[in-house]
Amino acid sequence: MTGLLPLETNIKIGEHVEREFAGMTFNMDTIWTTLVAGGLVLILGFVARRALTRPGADHVPTKVQLLWETIVGQVNTQVEENLGRVHPLVVPLAVGLFFFILFANWLELLPTEINQHVHLLPAPTADTNLTYAMAILAMVGVWIYGIREKGAKGYFKHFLEPFPVLLPLNILEELTKPITLALRLFGNIFAGGIMLALIGLIPWYASWGPNVLWKLFDMAIGGIQAFIFALLTVLYFGMAGAGHGEHDEDHADGADLKDSPARAH
Questions:
Q1: Are 13 and 194 contacting, i.e. CB atoms less than 8 angstroms apart?
Q2: What one-character DSSP code corresponds to residue 8?
Q3: Rounded to an integer, what distance in angstroms lies between the CA atom of residue 46 and that of residue 260?
Q4: What is the pLDDT of residues 25-38, one digit of tens each?
Q5: Which helix (H) or strand (E) holds 24?
Q6: Is the pTM here over 0.90, yes or no?
Q7: Fewer CB atoms near the end CB (10 Å): N or C, the chain?
Q8: What residues form DSSP beta bridges with 122?
């Protein structure tokens, strides 16, 4: 098998189409592939919305509508069973993240590499600039949500639990969440791109089999990583608001118990 491989490979790691503006460097390939993935999510959303708002009570649900409703319904069910009640915007956010990351991961599988230097649609999630941005935005949203649900005092109090001596470790754990969230996604997709590049070095008459098998495996990895990112985002939101919903329900139950004797009289 070694005779099929060239003696010298020319795979360049982390190379992007760069442009300088105002003293900053922009990875243009990451930007346009991010826009492509976002555009696909918007198209899917508009198609599903059009199917839902179609006039007539006897219209048959389309495949896109059934797919969208199934995924949203399952996510809602899993969240309520495992985390209880969360903000109604959390599940749509997780579903949107899932489809966006899924499309972004799968762009790498399309045969859009013209030559060794021009790749029209590389996976934008193989660039840490995008994964870090998504992870930071998700965690900032989690922190804002936790403060709004519990108040600043109630939210920051959990850093002292279960013992105040664990405050440094709890803060470190919170700060590393966006880092691990970003690097987990980046590492898996980046490694998949490297494997596709290595398989591309094999002559065409021997590479079609490994290429097909790896693309199927990479497609599964892309779906799993999109699911993990969305699931962890929902878990972080649920953890940030943990205890608030139960407190409201206990308060409401207590009010009902106080009112019940009055109703009896």
A1: yes
A2: S
A3: 48
A4: 888 888 999 999 99
A5: strand 24-27
A6: no
A7: C
A8: none
Contact 189, 222 (CB under 8 A): yes
Taken as a whole, the chain contains a residue count of 265
For residue 18, give the 3-state DSSP assignment. Answer: strand
Find the angle CA(28)-CA(34)-CA(36) to the nearest 5 degrees.
Answer: 105
Side chain identity at residue 182, one-letter code: A
Which region holds residue 123: left if phi is over 0, alpha if psi is between -120 and 50, else beta?
beta
Could you please report the per-residue DSSP string of 94-148? HHHHHHHHHHHHHGGGSS-B-SSS-BSS--GGGSHHHHHHHHHHHHHHHHHHHHH
For residue range 118-138, list pLDDT tens digits in order: 677 888 998 999 999 999 999
Tokens read off for 25? 């460097």
Alpha-carbon radius of gyration of the chain: 24
